[in-house]
Amino acid sequence: MKKDDERLFDLISPIVSENGLDLRNAAFFGPKEFQATWKRSGNMIDIRISDYLIDAPDDVIADFSKTVIGTIKKKRPTYGRTYLDWVRSDEYIDSKRKIYLRRSRNLTGSPEGNERNLIESLDRLLDSGLLDPGSIGNSFFSWTKIPNVRKFGFCSPMMRVVGISCLLDDVSIPEFVLDYVVYHEALHLKQGYRPGQRSHSKEFRQQERKYPKYEEAEKYLKALGSR
Ligand SMILES: [Zn+2]
């Protein structure tokens, strides 16, 4: 790890200097979600960057560092093409998703629940034409271990992982309600990883409303969440 941190320091240091700051420390760290954090005192900064980039090429790390330093300088974050192409590649997703799933302690790691299978939900959504195979390509669906009541599903567009609350792994929940939650999260996959942009855009909401029983499903979930 130390050698990796030295490399990181050498890559970030010139970019930090160009921005009138001094890099004191740079390190990779391993939170579940991809992120960068920093501490600033005067012109001195310490930066930590997600270890999902630990084996990325120099130009990718440099490109992402520009985004981080821009944010430290309170500029509106912009993400470079070199960085985006790297983290959107199947190669990146395939290797980092394994780590992400290990770190996701609340996921069972399987789309097969006790009573329901998420793959069957996806098949129904594909058969009905609401989803196309391309939009959910290279993705992974899993049930959660804890039955979240307020958040029925979540999506990491970067890792292309969807988690669905095991509260819905129950035949007493109408199938169209489960499928609706899966549909919502699948729309995030369709949108893809686009940092710095709104995840529930106007366009997203329009697509969400295409679900045939949209109103009923929303109503059902609202009632379920407030039990
Ligand atoms: Zn959402």
Automatic annotation (TrEMBL):
This is SprT-like family protein. It comes from Candidatus Methanoplasma termitum.
